[in-house]
Amino acid sequence: MRYELYYWPSTPGRGEFVRLALEEGDADYVDVARRKGGMAKMMRLLNGARAPHPAFAPPILKSGPLVIAQTANILLYLGRRLGLAPTGEAGMLWTHQLQLTIADFVDEIHDTHHPIASSLYYEDQKREAGRRAEDFRKNRLPKYLGYFERVLDRNPQGPRYLVGARTTYADLSMFEIVSGLRYAFPRSLARAARRCPHLVALHERIGDRPRIAAYLASDRRLPYDQVGIFRHYRELDG
Amino acid sequence: MRYELYYWPSTPGRGEFVRLALEEGDADYVDVARRKGGMAKMMRLLNGARAPHPAFAPPILKSGPLVIAQTANILLYLGRRLGLAPTGEAGMLWTHQLQLTIADFVDEIHDTHHPIASSLYYEDQKREAGRRAEDFRKNRLPKYLGYFERVLDRNPQGPRYLVGARTTYADLSMFEIVSGLRYAFPRSLARAARRCPHLVALHERIGDRPRIAAYLASDRRLPYDQVGIFRHYRELDG
């Protein structure tokens, strides 16, 4: 069965967390909005007058009759299907808990450049962004990275994976977080990473996995930019 | 089996979404941090040196050997246990998708008074809060409420519940959202509510459910305040 992913075609954004799972899981999928006529199809899915399960925002995954939105929810579903999460309840919940904490982290990364309103340009909230980014660099970034480093450190099966002894969607999402931060906050990340050797090693290990490496080298992987979650503004990096 | 809920004892906050599910589900539970010595117990759970599944933040639910964090994740678990979610995969995912959108809404409500840093006082980010709250009133509040009104309107089983024809944890959380907004943004909510008759009716219906009504009248229900998510600052309500 072919999955259909719907996400803004111009930026990796939250869609990237889903793409990484589809790629590592060797899933047959179409990145709909990046195809000709795909944006119109996505807008119909978002604004369709009678869909019984409307989505608030992309990403959206169509899988047969199912239409699933919310990044972490899509990964909860794909984790089972693609063997990217434990099958038992305890492991399933723990993996999802980590993903939801990653989602909170993503929101805070986004808000460093948009602390006032997503509907305004960065330039219209630059002063506030400066204040928020300062708190992010000093408090939030070290707190989140320290937390995930601790999770790796305490994994009873060793620090190679966030959960157990196999790759889960949480590892793939953590790869994306480190990649994105390396682009957006290179100085701050380099400083924080000194205390997070397990996270740095996880990032390298995931990037070296054959399917992920092939994906990263392909044109299916979108470059980071200045419209998505991870944006590089030198003045915000301290 | 007795559930243990761990959450800050001074404010409803995110713990309230869990409490409402426990109450409606007639669960045997202890609100640990509100008991004598409970705060110390919660801090040990948060900072314990060797816990294999550390939590980033409360709320945390202990259920036998399971230690579960992240509000939506706790509700995913309790939904199954307490009969507050459909048992089939499609219904389970749809309920969870709504809960994750509620979680995003909660984050945005919080950030109206704390757009710069949780670690600073409101007074230290009052100017920025004014700008963010203006965007919230004009754009985000109507967008979120309009979305959930649409979900009720499109429910093939009628507009009485968000999912199907029975109360789910998403309905209980939506009750809490409307209650909290009525406290924090009374003018803005009153204005927006005119376009959301199904949501207003859902709020009343949930508040009238026997177990919820008994809970609301008890001292287990904490009042809203000026330290939690829902805070009333007249200047932010437009």
Largest sheet of chain A: 4 strands, mixed
Q: How many helical stretches of chain A?
A: 9
Overall average pLDDT of chain A:
97
Over all CA atoms, what is the radius of gyration of chain A?
18 Å
The interface involving the most residues is between:
A-B, 46 and 46 residues
What general form of chain A does the structure show?
Answer: globular
Low-confidence stretches of chain A: none
CATH topology of one domain in chain A: Glutathione S-transferase Yfyf (Class Pi), Chain A, domain 2
Strand content of chain A: 5-15%
CATH class of one domain in chain A: Mainly Alpha
Count of DSSP strands of chain A = 4
Describe this structure in words.
The structure is a homodimer of 238-residue chains. The first copy, chain A, is α+β, with helices and mostly antiparallel strands. The first copy, chain A, has a domain at 89-209: Glutathione S-transferase Yfyf (Class Pi), Chain A, domain 2, CATH 1.20.1050. Helices cover 54% and strands 6% of the residues of chain A. Chain A contains nine helices and four strands; from the N terminus they run βαβαββααααααα. The first copy, chain A, has helices at 15-24, 38-47, 71-81, 89-113, 126-154, 169-184, 186-193, 197-208, 210-217; strands spanning 3-6, 29-31, 60-63, 66-69. Chain A has a four-stranded mixed β-sheet with strand order 2-1-3-4, covered by helices on one side. In chain A, a hairpin with a 2-residue loop joins β3 and β4 (66-69). In chain A, α6 packs across α8. The mean pLDDT of chain A is 97.
